[in-house]
Amino acid sequence: MLSNRFIYCVSLFCGGLFFSGLAAENGGATGGIPVIDTHIHLYDTARKGGVPWPKPSDQVLYRQVLPQNYDQVTKANGITATVIVEASDLVEDNQWVLDITAHNPKHYVGVVGNLPVGTPQFAKHLDRFAKDKRYVGIRLRSFAEGVDGFNDAVWRDLKLLSDKGLTLDVLMANYDLDDVMLIAKRLPKLKILINHLTGLIINGGPAEAAWAKKVEQAATYPNVSCKISGIFQRSNRSPAPKRVSYYAPIFHVVYESFGEDRIIYGSNWPVTDRGGEYGEQLAIINEYFSAKGRGVAEKLFWRNAAKFYGVQVN
Fold this sequence. Notes:
The chain is of the alpha/beta class. The protein has helices at residues 67-77, 92-100, 122-129, 152-163, 177-186, 209-219, 231-234, 244-258, 278-290, 294-309; strands spanning 9-14, 17-22, 36-40, 81-85, 108-113, 135-140, 167-170, 191-194, 224-228, 263-265. The protein has one domain (33-309): Alpha-Beta Barrel (TIM Barrel), CATH 3.20.20.140.
């Protein structure tokens, strides 16, 4: 018999994907449910030439954030696998993040890249990076210089992404839910993932009716999912509130709109450090969604991510 150690072994078939893994000692924050963190950033402020983000003035984030730093977080919080989201607008940084995680592909199972959509070089870049099976898609952060909105070249590149079976994360800082719906309608086979609970500021009060209606409208498109991520950042407070009730009204709207099959967990580490500890944010999210049953929590924390990104976790 095992004492003071909970080993959770699971062999499940999920959307054509095989998952076999071990949870954290004592079950971790999620009570033994495996976790795929679908949203972290890696960068090296000490490298020659520096980094475009974060800025040196950022006293919290401007430091080396490399796999060895994040590995400490995964061990402490029972994170089974991770998808990295590229925050740099330098094309070669797509290869850099693939290279620095190549030593551990069983943990670093996916990379969401950053490429200049709507430019003549997009197709060449996408073909190059997508040769690595861990390159699962790109994130739409902003339009490249010289690209004026959703023009023909942008649609050409987004269709190429869809045709390749790759995914599109959307950072909502420069886009809104109407943009998401525009893409979803025109490219119904493109899997789209809204980042950070649509990017709204969470103030602890009831959800605004106009926002809730937009979320419901976006969720009517079956190719759109929503990432339960970055909640400390979205609280716009430092330290962030640690009460589940502060975030519950927003969780409720997203869950009721997208349902249990189209919600996906992500942390937004190391930006989480602005508001508190990684484990504190994970515990808040787990407390709310685990109350809806183990099945819902399993979908949130790993099943839906595996299906959306097409990653295989061993």
